[in-house]
# Entry
Amino acid sequence: MNLTLNVLLPADRTKLGRFSLIDGSGQQLLGDCPVLGKADNAMALEHKNAERDPMKPFGDTPLGVYVCVVIPASPNQHSYGPNRRLLLVPKSGPCVVAEDPPACRRGIEWHGGGLNSAFGYWGGLRPTDGCLRSHDEDIARILAFYDQNQPAEFLANITEAG
# Structure
């Protein structure tokens, strides 16, 4: 069985996106879950990407299709949460271009992490260095479906709403 995470990010990345998890038969396993694909303004500025261009390092998460590789949990639970993480390996679309020089956008992940009440309009989700962030509980639910199904192919399809 295959699994696909369909992610719809707003063109205005200061707003929350949504994701759903679909199995190979098209059945929705998880739906309408929040996800943030916004880079941290200060980190982007520090790395000469004040506009948070997804095609440059420390920008917002690039669009495209990724292969999801489950990797171990990080000891830094505040930044990444208690769960294993998804390493997003570019497969097609703009994310492939962003991975190539000169941008060399590598190591993009989908993870959880500690919430910050100052970001209540994002459900407490904090911006990242260019990754996707979801609530720890949603990451755990994605991983439970992964463990239960052991998919032959596990993809994330990240698109943008107008």
Q: What stands out?
A: Strands lie at 3-10, 17-23, 28-35, 64-71, 85-92, 109-111, 132-133, 154-161. The chain has one domain: 3-161. Residues 71 and 95 are 20 Å apart (CA to CA). Helices lie at 41-46, 77-80, 94-99, 136-149.
